[in-house]
Each structure stands twice: as structure tokens, then as C-alpha cells.
Design a protein that fits this description.
Blueprint lengths: L9 H10 L4 E5 L4 H12 L8 H4 L7 H4 L5 E8 L8 H5 L6 E2 L8 H20 L4 E4 L7 H7 L4 E2 L5 E2 L7 E8 L19 H5 L5 E3 L2 E2 L5 H7 L9 H4 L2 E3 L3 H4 L26 H5 L3 H7 L9 H15 L4 H8 L7 H20 L1
Parallel strand pairs: 3-10
Antiparallel strand pairs: 1-2, 2-7, 4-7, 5-6, 8-9
Helix pairs in contact: 14-16, 15-16
């Protein structure tokens, strides 16, 4: 049993984690009963939309030992991805011909970066204690990562349901090591500093944050542009504006992000000028170009078909121009019915603007 081992203390693990590029690290053992009840209620209300995987694993999501047998402690880590030199969000959203891409997706896929570092952290712990049971997770399995991070003292869950740190904001990724080591836990972050602020609720373009701490994913632009495989509901299309991959509005307006730290990770540097890309330029990519330009990027996960779907909606929302109409008509015969549908909608929206002019 691991109880007989000389275990590293939390500060040792923190030092190893920081040496690997994590900005913060904490340990939790606390139960997730309240979070499990919240998850079940959220699922029962259908707020997960088509994300069937959210309900597929039963209680494994909220009971770590069921997901990975033998788990008694969870090491949570965070890594900053904020790029202060990126084109200002307000500037991009105010330019309807520009393409807005969520800040987290401007660089290399965080799944790969964090997973590799977590493996190195596990190796370092193994050097100290010998072989031990563990499993690394980076948004890749049924894990309540924000609740675990909160219990490990890394922040509180805000009204927009993202984790917030009072000295570092919320522009960071999370990862976990489930372990069979009985480590001493960190104090949970048991204070919520959102107060009476409702900026995230007020700014949400689709009003997906239906109440504090309640997000209806079916209305969330990140869900609609990334998770949803089918057709984007017509009534929501105009609300997407020029957001073609994700949405950062709720984090952008959060006052705690004035404390956000700039990332030091080279892997998270902006690729291919995606922070200043133009809709028509991206719409002109063929599938080979899409594959090449999104290699190693989280954007690749949506595939070329949904990429065109999303941009078509943004072009429909853009001001009328002959160039836009021509670009859309060039895609009318695309082999994908999904693309055809959204292109047809965009052409109709463009022509309506021309008629109203």
C-alpha cells in the first residue's frame, strides 16, 4: 500500500510542476457530492444539448475512484494562455469582416502541451516514490476539472461557470493527475468573489448564461461553433456575429482578468495570424489548406465542413458586398449538405441587406 511510502509534500510537487511550466498546482481529496447533484440537474434539464458524452459515464465524472481505480488524491494544475499582444477582442468583434477565434485556439493544441507536461510530472513523482498508480487528464475524459481545481485551491467557479483566480484571472488551462498516493490536500478555495457583478451574464450574445452558474450549452456560441455537429439553429445565427470558433465574451468582460498573466509558453504563441484573420480569406481555404494551417491546433477538431459552416454564418452576418456574395455562391455546390444549407442562408441574408440599402 502507498501509505507506507515516504511521500513528497505539496510544496515539492508544486516546485516540480512550476519547473515544468505550470503556473500553479494543488492537491484535492474532497468529495464532489454537491457538484454531482449540480451535474445531474444540468443534464436532466437538457442543457448539454448534443453532448451525449456528458451523460454517458454515469457517476465516473464526479467520483474519481470509479474513473480510475485506486484514486485517492487528485493533483490539479493550471497553465496560462493569455496573449496580451493578440489583436484586441473589442477591435475584432467591432469589425464584421474580421474572423473572431477564441483566444485559447490561436496557438498549439493545449491538450498535447499539458498532457506531455503532466506525464513528466508523473515521472518526477515516480523518481521520488517509485512506481505508483496514476492517470493524466486534459479535458479528455469524464472529469469535473473545475470542481477539482477549486477543491485544490486554484480558484472559484464564477457565474459564467469558468474557474477564476483572484490574482490571475481565468485565461488558463486545467489538467489533472489522478493518483493512488495519499497526499495531503490543499485547502479548498471556499470563497466566491463574483459578488453582485453580472457582466458575464449581460454580455453573452445569445444569453446562454441563463442564471448565475447556469449555462444552457444549446445557446452557447462555443457549443454551436465547436461541439455541435449539425445545423446551427437559424434564430441563433445572427447572434453569432463574426465568431467562427468559440466565444470569449464572458471572460473578456470579467474584471478579474485585469490580473491575467501573459503566457510564457512558446507553444501558445499565435499561429498564421489567426488573431487578425479576415473571413473571406479563411473561407477561401480549400481542405488541404485547412489541414495544413490547423496542424497541431485545436481548430482541426471541428473539421473542414464545420469550419465552412461557421464562416458562412459569419459572412451572412457581415455587411453586404459583391465580393462576399461571389465567395458564397462559389460554395453553393459544395458536396456537404450542411455547408450548402448555411451558404444558402448566408446568401439570403446578404441579399436582404442589399434590398434594404
Amino acid at each position: 500500500m502507498n501509505e507506507t511510502r515516504a511521500l513528497p509534500d505539496r510544496e515539492q510537487i508544486r516546485q516540480w510542476a512550476r519547473a515544468l511550466g505550470f503556473q500553479e498546482c494543488g492537491v484535492s481529496t474532497a468529495p464532489l457530492a454537491e457538484d454531482e447533484a449540480y451535474l445531474l440537474s444540468w443534464l436532466q434539464q437538457g442543457f448539454h444539448g448534443d453532448m451525449d458524452y456528458m451523460a454517458r459515464h454515469g457517476s465516473k465524472r464526479s467520483r474519481p475512484a470509479e474513473l480510475h481505480t485506486g484514486t485517492v488524491s487528485v493533483i490539479s494544475v493550471r497553465m496560462d494562455y493569455h496573449q496580451p499582444d493578440a489583436a484586441p477582442i473589442a477591435e475584432i468583434l467591432a469589425d464584421p469582416d474580421a474572423a473572431f477565434i477564441s483566444r485559447y485556439a490561436l496557438g498549439r493544441d493545449y491538450h498535447k502541451v499539458l498532457r506531455q507536461r503532466l506525464q513528466k510530472l508523473a515521472d518526477r513523482i515516480g523518481q521520488a516514490v517509485g512506481p505508483f498508480g496514476y492517470r493524466a487528464f486534459v479535458d479528455s475524459a469524464p472529469v469535473l476539472e473545475k470542481a477539482l481545481a477549486r477543491n485544490a485551491g486554484l480558484g472559484w467557479i464564477g457565474k459564467h461557470t469558468n474557474l477564476i483566480h483572484e490574482r490571475h484571472g481565468s485565461w488558463f488551462f486545467l489538467g489533472e493527475l489522478y493518483t493512488d498516493l495519499p497526499l495531503a490536500p490543499d485547502p479548498a478555495h471556499d470563497r466566491n468573489h463574483c459578488g453582485t457583478c453580472t457582466r458575464c451574464l449581460d454580455v453573452c450574445p445569445t444569453q446562454a448564461i441563463i442564471a448565475p452558474y447556469q449555462v444552457d450549452a444549446r445557446r452557447c456560441i462555443s457549443y454551436l461553433t465547436i461541439e455541435l455537429h449539425g445545423s446551427i439553429p437559424e434564430d441563433l445565427r445572427p447572434l453569432l456575429g463574426n465568431r467562427i470558433y468559440g466565444c470569449d465574451d464572458c471572460q473578456w468582460v470579467c474584471p478579474w482578468n485585469k490580473f491575467a498573466d501573459a503566457t510564457i509558453e512558446v507553444d501558445f504563441q499565435i499561429r498564421h495570424g489567426l488573431d487578425r484573420a479576415r473571413l473571406l480569406d479563411l473561407f477561401a481555404w480549400d481542405e488541404t489548406t485547412f489541414q495544413n494551417r490547423t496542424e497541431g491546433s485545436p481548430i482541426r477538431r471541428i473539421g473542414y465542413e464545420r469550419w465552412l459552416r461557421n464562416i458562412a454564418v459569419a459572412l451572412g452576418n457581415a455587411p453586404f458586398s459583391e465580393q462576399t456574395i461571389q465567395a458564397l455562391r462559389a460554395k453553393q455546390s459544395h458536396p456537404s449538405e450542411l455547408v450548402q444549407e448555411h451558404v444558402a442562408w448566408a446568401i439570403k441574408a446578404q441579399l436582404a441587406k442589399a434590398s434594404a440599402a
